[in-house]
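Input structure tokens:
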């Protein structure tokens, strides 16, 4: 233990340690466990009967001793039900939605978890881990609640570790990661739904009594209908810069379930974890089950602050190479689909160089021989280069790339198989399908059973083999296009373990790959944004938000993702979707990680010049976009002009993006838009950048103080004929 603990608390803690292991403890004074970050405190308190309650989550207090008085101030009456258990067990006194439910080895279904002890360990200047141990008073069954705090970022990751020493297996009927308790007058939930090409559509509603569940049962590509992110505003809807708001994200790439239950005392219980749908998990004696992490942040200054905190945390601690650079690229998916050969690809490699981007990304269609991958009906699983398209193997492309002085990356979808493939013929038992029912497909394919270690080995070798055979391979796009129908594993002894073990199997493969290739850029794709969560992003440098690249649509989609994920992770490609001008499409893609998926040879000379210049401008402003703070200025939902900006950490360079999102007559930026995040005392030059060749800027540029820019603002003069405008703000 390496943390300063107030004296009054210490006696209580020591007392608790003395009784460690005993299910019912007698405490001289209540044990109070404050879990603090820069701004907030989550306070747990042990009752005289030994139950651990969550008594407070809000702004922290200067004097830690005062946390002991918080519970009384709230006057929580728990006599009917333990509304605010820190981790609600099912089957004993609890009457509300549980965080954990089990069937013991003897068939009994009751669980009553009591306090044993807690520890707090400082892992670095910024990171601390508080672990609270709980034990059942009758059964040899234990849970450790873990709270890992990131002090400066105001972020907490919470997860549970479950273990038992009963005579035989215990079945976990529900095994949540976290069980939070909020207390406010009202709660406003913003959550998301979607489908292919319709990702991140928000809905905001006031919660009332009862349970609102956000969940998925899709297995893989799990977020297709609903991603595992949400925000809850307290007392009133929060705005960008005002209001109290909690953001949450379950770090899990499979079925999840988040219950938001407003209880009879108006408290909000938030229970987040793996979905227990068809997932009763068999746990052997002596084996630990570690739940995924639930990450959350609480802001008192609106959605903008919460998102900047989460983005900073993600870049620092979660996303691979979050403080590193990103590769601009040219992708061939929409320019060729499956129809290419060596010559065509050699041409695209030259185009990559001409455009000035860093890398060529070869998409789907390069593999399969007995069943060539010339369409999406066959070949998945057979990861040998197609000899008709690539007679000289991938080596031809890496060699060509190095001659053109660009990098080379490749698409894979290693978790999947087409029934028309050699892999399926050889290993039908590796495929997720019901043995006695007809197969049912999404995109003509099935999912490989990653709960099976042999399949994990195969998937690892597919990707590792590409790297070892092609040492110049610089990038992987990892796709996942099918959900799971007919969930059944020929490998699992207990089918209830399958959904969970699938994701754990995937993570084992990704762990091995990352151990060997720690920083190689990898894009997380799932038929668009079917799998965007921090469980997966731990292994990836970026994600593909949606196959929908129509730029107006994309402004809305990227806007909503940006609440939860940093811009450098958002792969934005310029394509031919939609009717907006090329400049508009490029400007929208520049708001994240810039890529192109168009036929370069079809560009007119001034269009090519514009794109080449845009790549240079993007690189010039990559520091604020990739590693800076993002400020949303005007949202696309309630304004004719959507606007946001990025400022670098020294507040010396910023870039503002503005777009006309309502094309009605005479719409445009009528008023100046106030900037945010600048230094009021610095002077900045303001000028329009990324102009199309021949176009002249019409903004009132010049040199202004930070105060002026944040009080009066700049009018980007967005209107018909100037539907997207980029403004550079540079310290003088
Ligand atoms: C779905 C992805 O979202 C696309 O970008 C593309 O890679 C295709 N799969 C290829 O099959």
């Amino acid at each position: 233990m390496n943390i300063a603990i107030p004296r009054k608390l210490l006696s209580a803690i020591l007392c608790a340690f003395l009784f460690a292991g005993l299910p019912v403890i007698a405490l001289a004074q209540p044990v109070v466990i404050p879990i603090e970050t820069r701004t907030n405190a989550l306070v747990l308190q042990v009752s005289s009967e030994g139950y651990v309650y969550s008594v407070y989550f809000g702004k922290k207090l200067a004097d830690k001793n005062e946390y002991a008085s918080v519970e009384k101030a709230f006057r929580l009456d728990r006599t009917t039900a333990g509304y605010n258990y820190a981790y609600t067990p099912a089957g004993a006194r609890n009457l509300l939605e549980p965080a954990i439910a089990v069937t013991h080895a003897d068939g009994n279904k009751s669980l009553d978890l009591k306090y044993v002890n807690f520890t707090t360990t400082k892992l670095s200047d910024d990171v601390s881990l508080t672990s609270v141990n709980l034990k059942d008073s009758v059964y040899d069954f234990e849970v450790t609640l873990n709270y890992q705090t990131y002090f400066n970022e105001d972020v907490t990751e919470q997860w549970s570790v479950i273990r038992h020493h009963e005579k035989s297996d215990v079945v976990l009927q529900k095994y949540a990661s976290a069980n939070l308790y909020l207390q406010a007058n009202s709660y406003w939930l913003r959550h998301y739904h979607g489908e292919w090409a319709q990702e991140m559509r928000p809905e905001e509603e006031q919660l009332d009594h009862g349970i609102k569940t956000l969940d998925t049962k899709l297995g893989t590509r799990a977020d297709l209908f609903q991603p595992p992110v949400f925000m809850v505003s307290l007392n009133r809807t929060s705005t960008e810069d005002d209001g109290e708001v909690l953001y949450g994200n379950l770090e899990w790439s499979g079925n999840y379930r988040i219950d938001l239950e407003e209880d009879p005392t108006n408290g909000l219980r938030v229970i987040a974890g793996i979905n227990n749908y068809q997932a009763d998990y068999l746990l052997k004696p002596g084996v630990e089950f570690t739940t995924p992490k639930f990450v959350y942040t609480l802001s008192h200054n609106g959605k903008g602050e919460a998102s900047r905190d989460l983005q900073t945390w993600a870049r620092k601690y979660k996303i691979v190479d979050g403080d590193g650079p990103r590769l601009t690229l040219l992708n061939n998916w929409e320019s060729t689909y499956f129809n290419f050969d060596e010559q065509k690809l050699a041409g695209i490699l030259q185009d990559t160089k001409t455009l000035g981007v860093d890398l060529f990304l070869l998409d789907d269609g390069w593999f399969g021989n007995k069943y060539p991958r010339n369409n999406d009906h066959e070949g998945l699983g057979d990861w040998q280069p197609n000899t008709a398209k690539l007679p000289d193997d991938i080596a031809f492309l890496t060699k060509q790339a190095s001659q053109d002085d660009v990098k080379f990356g490749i698409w894979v979808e290693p978790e999947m198989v087409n029934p028309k493939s050699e892999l399926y013929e050889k290993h039908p038992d590796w495929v997720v399908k019901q043995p006695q029912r007809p197969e049912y497909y999404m995109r003509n394919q099935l999912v490989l059973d990653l709960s099976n270690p042999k399949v994990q080995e195969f998937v690892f070798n597919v990707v590792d083999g590409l790297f070892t055979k092609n040492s110049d391979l610089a990038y992987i796009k990892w796709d996942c296009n099918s959900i799971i129908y007919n969930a059944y594993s020929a490998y699992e002894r207990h089918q209830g373990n399958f959904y969970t073990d699938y994701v754990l199997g995937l993570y084992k493969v990704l762990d091995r790959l990352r151990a060997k290739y720690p920083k190689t850029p990898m894009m997380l794709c799932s038929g668009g944004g079917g799998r965007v969560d921090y469980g997966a992003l731990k292994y990836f440098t970026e994600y593909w938000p949606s196959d929908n690249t129509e730029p107006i649509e994309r402004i809305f989609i990227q806007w909503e993702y940006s609440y939860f994920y940093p811009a450098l992770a958002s792969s934005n490609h310029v394509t031919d979707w939609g009717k907006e001008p090329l400049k508009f499409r490029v400007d929208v893609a520049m708001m994240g990680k810039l890529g192109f998926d168009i036929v370069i040879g079809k560009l007119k000379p001034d269009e090519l010049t514009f794109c080449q210049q845009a790549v240079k401008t993007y690189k010039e402003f990559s520091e604020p976009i990739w590693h800076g703070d993002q400020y949303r200025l005007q949202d696309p939902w309630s304004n004719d002009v959507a606007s946001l900006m990025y400022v670098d950490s020294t507040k010396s360079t910023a870039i503002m993006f503005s777009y006309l999102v309502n094309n009605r007559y005479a719409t445009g930026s009528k008023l100046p838009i106030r900037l945010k995040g600048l230094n009021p005392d610095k002077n900045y030059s303001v000028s329009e950048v990324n102009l199309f060749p021949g176009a002249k800027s019409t903004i009132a540029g010049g040199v202004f103080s930070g105060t002026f820019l944040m009080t009066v603002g700049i009018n980007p003069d967005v209107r018909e004929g100037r539907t997207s405008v980029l403004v550079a703000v540079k310290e003088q």
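Confidence is low (pLDDT under 50) at residues 1-26. The first helix runs from residue 7 to 18.
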